[in-house]
């Protein structure tokens, strides 16, 4: 591709830009699956956790299951209503982080950011662990190897995201809608059977659950309350991911806020319907489900369950019973559930870079995360996410029940701060608003957020009380660490900014430019560097050669004279073949002789294309440039000479630049398939 | 350290240089241990290998042991005599590589280099594996974990060499002389006992060896010949390392060649004495020794040896028997033997960078290896050596007997090519020499080298025949791979040189300099870059800002006007926050408008000192510089601004520069302890 093409492409790209941008924004029917997979997928594990907690008091406690389901549904309704306010008030996509920062200050914002970071790691760990359980449900040979399966899933997801996958609407739409159809269809069919009275029992219906020690029929009311609170807080895992839409408003079609709010409403309704249906069916079909670590509490006809017995997830048990006469439907339900769980994990890989770039813009993360195209910084983020998730999966042996204990704290910390921020937002807005209709509207919004805050605050307290020792302390510790790192980064940037703030004397121009051109041989790059240096008309110009071998030096001096270059050549002797130090020292000597002047060091470099060629060249130039950066009053100029093979590297860089990055879709940045889009 | 100190140190350093250089050269008594540890250490395993091979035909074959010892001693005498000629003819330290290159051409030289590279890896693997066996002999709990012990040794050696250890004469002298005293003392004591008739038997004397299948008393003469040839070629492992002195002539005191030749003679005499003494004593003391993989061929009183039985190395058995009444002496012998083996491995870590720098100078290895101070290239070499050695140790389970099969091929390939080269050398010299005395001397030298060639050629053929299938094919394959890599690197450098060769038109000066200064903010670094750029008086000068956010852009534009800088500011819009591409495109547009001009891009950079600070800054500048290298007609100037913390990095760089590198001693590069030496 020649220079002409490049400019043409720029022009073409610019012309297309604004129109194409509209095309790539998401209609509601596509936005729903893109942002909903995380929230909807939790129906695959949240009901299971409710039943596990209740089973501590034996199967009789399952009478509480639908009440807990309704309590979770109420909280979800409140949260959805609250976020609909957020979407209208903060359409820029900053989400909870922005709301907290603007209304509650930087510390609240950074707290939310820490919570979200922890949350992304846990989303991957929990979703993939749950997915591994479904995989083991469908492919029995995997039973007992869930941690290994989950780790492989994470590694594959990481590789896909490092490579750059085109996250398109279709990519999400098909599996998410398939999941909705499968689960809602299964539930509808089950409820019809329930009404007709032909509802079958699930496979675990004939099991007996021994209550856990201290949880039997002699349980105190207080202990029962605590148990119900634990079950409720585990069920609140269903709420994770609801906030995703508030981070993705810019990707919606216009009117963005209204469309986002509507989508959020749909999402809430679907999620509540699914969860309540699954809980009801499971209860009616006689489900018996305990913590997989306590299978010894299950018995059948008075005998303990045989060794090697394994529980299938709740949805798998329901599907198997409901579709007892049509096993393809059972496998379809299991498969789409597994896919949606992996998709939910993938949303964390996509959300992470978006959060990173927002944090970078505010100085809480390395600046490199803030600009598109820093592939290294971006890849590090994805690898970090994957490694943390794998550590959690291995430590907790991919047991969803134990990972859930860590999960919800982060989510509810950010829910709370966000709701509190929204209340402050409306209070502030009310101060300046005089139109009564709009004031009424604001009052209403503030009430909704206040209700939301009440609910989420109660849940957070319950979660902290019931889960702190069970693992939530790890989450809180991780949040504190992230918080301190981010504050530290910001403090560093602030210090640097202060040190760099310009004052008047900085405009002083150097009185003299002393240019030196490094010479290693008399070849094209050296001659080009000499010519370029001459073109800048410095006050003094000389070639500098580091002599490590008298013979080569004499040859060069002769050739230098022959060429009649009109530039003197300074020879620096270096008996031990050091190249960098003599040059640095010489530059500093010149600078010292002319403290108000500047030394310009010209380094001829030739540019090769293949990675192994790069290993063979320019190591000295690189080291020298690195060292000269520390010499005050010296500027370093690279004069490149492109060898034929450099074309290869140029093309590779261009390909890499055009590659899709995780998170593009959520930011409304999508190119068309020919890569001619708005980049 | 201020600039003044730096210059003073330079001057001081220069003044001291020539006098200090003399001081650091090695007297013979120090040079012997420095260069002899590799050659002498082989007495710790070479006799064992002879007995192992002979034991295939049962203990009766041990009658051949001293004859094989004498054959090995003869070869060693011939090789030592030959290398004494090399040391006189090629005092520059290039050793076999130089001799082969000069006299037989580049391909022979590269072949020798490949052989030496393989040899370094094997020196580490064999010495450390043997050392691990001695460690297991002294500390029985290590028995069976030799491969693990050896791997740990290699990792520790690697770490020490990466860190940079001061390889001083004392470092070698004490353990090497201790080893000589211990072994020669033990042998002397044993021989006195032998003469007096009180020589005890070794621990294995009462064992019986069952001959290996096909090697019994019914063995054919041909089979016996083959067996003796195998034993002989294993015994030739004693010759490895003899050539080291020829690579180290520059480190000797004057007269360098004569001192080196004398040291070589001492080395040869000591090595031969040790080897013959050990073999004689072992034979007389009734040693029984088989391949550790075939312990089932040993029996005691007609019963097989018990499970868990382990053989101690030959020297350990002799020492235990001779010092039966004084066990500290036994432990002393074992300990110094172990130390000398580790020291021998360390010489490979020291020789490797020296060979690398010679190869780099000739274009067969990456240039970066050729200059002191390229810590990265240098470290890569050490890590490479360690990793290859560990792979060999693990694959061969640290069994010296199996590793020996790979070892000697490389050594004898380089012996042969070197001797052949020396014969050519003398023939060529004879053509121009007319002084009869010197001609006689040359004829004598040529005869010595011819004898040397004959011996080493015979050994090489025997080694190839007896060991090819036992492992020597791996060595040959590795040599071929190294050979092809080195030739490929050289071909690449030649191609580049051809492409870079200067012609007349390269002197054309650009007609116009268009300078652009990148602006991200109006802070000190930007103002400094603007001032420096102005000082070069370009034909056109403008600031360039990539706008990703209209608000920030407006703020900057206002500030720019307020400051009254007298330089226009060009704003490039980048809606997707790409920073690099707009700048590269703009520079190329300017270049296109003025094809005969040059674009000078000034990048303000601020320099921080701590590694984590570096992660937080300048990623964009780095990427931009990388991309601009590929833009023809663009030169890139870094204008650094040193923040306070940059001092830390400067001090770190200085420390790293002054650090000792492996191989310094062998090149005659030693600083005194205060680090003020000739660097």
From TrEMBL, chains A, B:
It holds the Pfam family AA_permease_2. Gene3D superfamilies: Amino acid/polyamine transporter I. Signal peptide: none annotated. Keywords: Membrane, Transmembrane, Transmembrane helix. GO terms for molecular function: transmembrane transporter activity. Residues 659-679 are annotated as: Disordered. InterPro entries: AA/rel_permease1, APC_K+_Transporter. Residues 661-679 have a biased composition (Basic and acidic residues). The chain crosses the membrane at residues 63-83, 104-128, 134-160, 172-192, 222-242, 263-282, 329-355, 376-398, 404-426, 447-465, 471-489. GO terms for cellular component: membrane. It is found in: Membrane. It is a multi-pass membrane protein. This is Amino acid transporter. It comes from Nocardioides panaciterrulae.
